[in-house]
Amino acid sequence: MATPWYLNRRQLLTWGGALAGAAFLPALPQLSPPADGGTRSFPGNYPFTLGVASGDPLPDAVVFWTRLAPLPSAPDGGMPPHPVGVRWEVAEGEGFRTVVRRGAVVARPESAHSVHVDVRGLRPDRVYFYRFAVGAHVSAVGRTRTAPALTAPLLHLAFAFASCQNLVAGHYTAYQDMLRRDLDFVLHLGDYIYEGAGTGKDAVRNNTRSSEATTLDDYRVRHADYKRDPDLQAVHAAFPFILTWDDHEVDNNYAAADADPDQPRDEFLVRRAAAYQAYFEHQPLRPAQRPVGPDAHLFRRFTFGDLLQLHVLDSRQYRSDQARDESESRDPSRTMLGADQEQWLHRGLTGSRRVWDVLGNQVPVRRYGTRELGGDQWDGYDAARQRLLDSFARTPGNPVVLTGDLHSNQVSDLPAAFADDTSPFVATEFMGTSITSGGDGAGRLVYDDFGNRWERFRNFGQRGYVAIDVTPRTLTAEYRGVETVRERTSSAYTVERFALEAGRRGVEFA
Q: End of a domain among 100, 122, 145?
């Protein structure tokens, strides 16, 4: 395979490379005065310190993101309290000789001067390059890819999924390895940031603010801390991301409007609104995902030709509070996804006409059987999980669950009913470990002696990600591990590989 463009042109992902690229932008349009009173020029320091990103690819559209923040450690990013005009362009090549779309947008202080440009009219299954400019300053160059046409006969799709990237726990060495792959997109399953103080003797890096994030200023600074990481910036600039959140984007183990039992619900909803606002400001999400107070519509679906349908879940915003005992877990009125999302998912699964149906899921579906381990997971929502398994059983294609959360690699086949030892398997769950959370470990492998019939593999103490390769016949999951996250760089290797065969429910070692 040829060396990817982003390894040949790594200087474009640095400030110096971005500034040097200014000479390529003489044709970027100037802003016309907007109807709401106009914008002002930006004479300040380099504003693209948080990089660029793209996301939510459709056959004809991609979202492009940046945020102006010359002083990223400040809540306002060091920006003036007025709107600023930002120019953008999208091209077919990294030299920007063939520009296919260009325009201008207003970055506003009430959105932390973040920019979300939903560019339409692109061609399906195409690589594009993009960049932003404000005043004399030019951003790094990003690369993205649109999804294939909805009915296109697709022979191959490659993506990776990741989760749990606690900044203080280490460096993002797994992303360095991911950058060496040719991926269509990256799926991030939550815990993009950690809200906690994150201090202590084992900390590898420090947050700007050493206290727990609870306010809008706190969450903005915390996101900026993460976005300044060079490996995270590089992987965002190399691939479009599809993201969902878990708990640490707001508060550990929160459930809908319930968090700390000592905090009133109305106070927590104010905190949730702040966290959701900061999350949107720092991710390549469409305007449809913009929060309204403490509410945001994050569950959504993506289709990749006739090969794969991706259902991205939100298992935090609508769930019932964690169960206190087994009988409460089995209560049919309790929900993990909320009624609307559950019905949306059921319709999408049972009505699918793709070969593979993949769930981007936050917490483990497989059974653990104890409240200590499973109360925050689908184990604590047993009736809701059974409804999910029933949907899998009715799915005409091949359902697969991709999961984060537990900082370990695990593979399980999911039976139609966990309590019935004769029930057939209806799906397979690939759980991926963390990017950094948990720090370096021994990397212990376990292949058997689980005491149940559904588990296939566990790998503890390992940091990394999972690469997924999909064809009409097989789906392969390659578990990638890194030697360390305590050092700035690390070697990486394959921990294990698994394969699913289309038309057959159950995983095999590859």
A: 145
In a domain, 417, yes or no: yes
How far apart CA 153 and CA 284 sit, in angstroms, is 28
Q: Which residues, listed in sequence order, are joined to residue 477 by a DSSP beta bridge? A: 468, 498
Shortest CA distance to 295 belongs to which of 250, 334, 248? 250
Number of structural domains (the chain) is: 2
Summarize pLDDT for 38-95 with one digit per residue, the tens: 456 566 799 999 999 999 999 999 999 999 999 999 999 999 999 999 999 999 999 9
- Spatial neighbors of 292 by CB under 8 A, at least 6 apart, are none
Residue entry with tokens 């900026």: 224
Residue where a domain terminates, one of 123, 145, 167: 145
**C-beta of residue 185 within 8 angstroms of C-beta of residue 57:** yes
CA angle 346, 348, 354 (to 5 degrees): 130
- Tell me the C-alpha distance between 213 and 206, whole Å: 14
User: Is 151 contained in some domain?
Assistant: no
Instruction: List, for the chain, all residue ranges whose pLDDT scores fall below the cut of 50.
Output: 1-38
Looking at residue 325, what is its pLDDT?
A: 84
Nearest to 229 by CA among 284, 162, 172, 186: 172
Its domain, for residue 131, covers: 5-145
